[in-house]
UniProtKB/TrEMBL annotation:
Pfam families, per database record: Na_K-ATPase (PF00287)
The keyword Phosphoprotein is annotated on this UniProt entry: no
Main location: membrane
Name listed for the protein in its UniProt record: Uncharacterized protein
Organism: Cylicocyclus nassatus (Nematode worm)
Upper classification of the organism: Eukaryota, Metazoa, Ecdysozoa, Nematoda, Chromadorea
Length: 323
């Protein structure tokens, strides 16, 4: 039978068990404190800075100014570097690319009146009957618009009487009258109100088609790589002697270019100045019978024979004539 001291020893917890209890109690207390702190943070949000963690006084001000100064210097250095990289890529003249109106390394041959200007469904095919003015009425409206907006009378010198532009310099000398109403230059295809009323040859099955280039800023026709060959003399004959001619062909039609030697270079370059008149030539067609016809026109000037993408610089004019 156990004595009283033995029973007391059995009932009393061991030292290891006591340590474990104390450890668990401490962990529970820590978890409780953490949970209370987390709940408080969730309700009130993070503590806002009151500036006590930063240095104060002159040293603090100096550190702040030094920090901002470093940021400013780095920003200025990056800006100067970017400007330098842009400046070293600058050219004396703009570099143009692609093709189309106002931009493009090579001006493209275009024709007027182009039906796609007012009806894309035509796909550029000129369909008409010489006996029915209604079939080419829209073409005459297009001619009227060109005459009114681009070749209306102005108080500017005629291109045939000016010296021209020296080496394609950007001057007002390229603004001159191309004398679109001159019967001496364009014959029956002169761009006048009277000729438009008479149908510009469409009523006689001898239509007049305008050929010109898309406008390209600063483009000057290069007849030679030698800049001396582009210098103009004082007799006013330079730009009128250096002309841009066209080669037109058709398997079914008779063609006549007006003027026969092409357009002068007096009205180049184009700088989008007030009063500018775009030079052109007229192509008169004859022997036009019922059916489909096609005319191909391209410049003979070697420097613009091909476009920037190496395709041929050519205008394809398609006709469909019916009774």
């Amino acid at each position: 039978m156990a004595t009283a001291s033995e029973r007391k020893a059995l009932l009393a917890p061991s030292s290891a068990e006591a340590v474990n209890r104390n450890s668990l109690s401490a962990e529970d207390s820590h978890d409780k404190d953490f949970k209370e702190a987390f709940d408080e943070l969730s309700l009130e949000g993070p503590k806002k800075s009151d500036g006590s963690e930063f240095k104060k006084g002159i040293k603090g001000w100096m550190m702040s100014i030094f920090y901002l100064l470093i940021i400013f210097i780095c920003d200025a250095a990056i800006s100067v570097l970017i400007m330098y990289l842009l400046l070293i890529q600058m050219r004396e003249r703009p570099y143009y690319f692609g093709k189309g109106t106002h931009v493009g390394g090579t001006p493209h041959v275009v024709f007027e009146p182009n039906p796609t200007r007012y009806d894309v469904v035509t796909r550029g095919v000129i369909k008409f009957s010489p006996a029915d003015p209604r079939t080419y009425q829209n073409l005459m409206i297009r001619y009227k618009k060109i005459l009114r907006e681009e070749y209306s009378p102005k108080k500017i010198a005629n291109c045939s009487s000016i010296v021209g532009v020296l080496n394609g310099a950007p001057t007002n000398e390229s603004v001159c009258s191309v004398e679109s109403n001159s019967y001496e230059e364009f014959g029956d295809c002169a761009l006048t109100r009277e000729n438009i009323k008479r149908g510009m040859g469409f009523s006689r099955a001898e239509p007049c088609i305008m050929l010109r280039f898309s406008k390209v800023f600063g483009w000057f026709p290069s007849h030679s790589e030698d800049s001396d060959s582009r210098r103009c003399s004082s007799d006013g004959s330079c730009c009128n002697k250096k002309r841009i001619s066209f080669s037109c062909s058709s398997s079914t039609l008779d063609l006549k270019l007006l003027p026969s030697d092409g357009m002068s270079t007096c009205a180049f370059p184009f700088w989008n100045k007030d009063g500018y008149e775009q030079p052109f030539v007229m192509l008169k067609l004859s022997n036009l019978t019922n059916g489909k016809h096609e005319v191909r026109c391209k410049p003979t000037l070697k420097s613009i024979e091909r476009m920037d993408d190496d395709t041929q610089n050519v205008a394809r004019i398609k006709f469909e004539v019916f009774s």
